[in-house]
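DM between two lab members

TW: hey, do you still have the Helix-turn-helix domain-containing protein entry open?
JB: yeah, one sec
JB: this one, 183 aa:
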Amino acid sequence: MSTFVAHLDFFMLETLITSKTRLKLLIKFFVNSQNHSHLRGLADEFGESTNAIRKELNNLTQAGILIRHSDKNKIEYQANIRHPFYTNIRDIIRKYLGLDMLLENILERMGAVEQVVLTGDIARGNDTGTIDVLVTGENLNDEYINHLTKRIEELIDRKVIFTLSMGRTTAGGLVLFDRQAGI
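TW: and the structure you got?
JB:
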């Protein structure tokens, strides 16, 4: 995929979703369905007013895209994985972030990849412009990773930090690929 097409996807989503707060919320909750948060936490994380975030949370909850539940006097929100469009929204958000191209390029010529796991901010749904990726496997192509880093950063317009590991990982993060689990 060309850089032009990748940038086109980026601008198309921002044209469709004109509210930056709504886009941040969709990234937060749909990049990883395990992500959840409450109003004040989101306001602090995004550096926005609670009113702006409350409005978007209410809209997304009324649409059934987010669910809310009480947790120790706080209302927590997370993606509604039972919503008919959950998978579609998740895939759009991951495409917007460039995760589909990232995974495709890793699996293309990295060797015997066992796992590809997102760690750091992006796994928590924070699009800070940096994507931390753990790649596990035997005899991984170290030379290709240097070439891939520059190429993928140009394609997705984000900084990518790769960590290579010989053994499988059970550490936290968002698993994009796991040969053993068939993901």
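TW: got it. Residues 108 and 133 are 16 Å apart (CA to CA). The mean pLDDT is 87.
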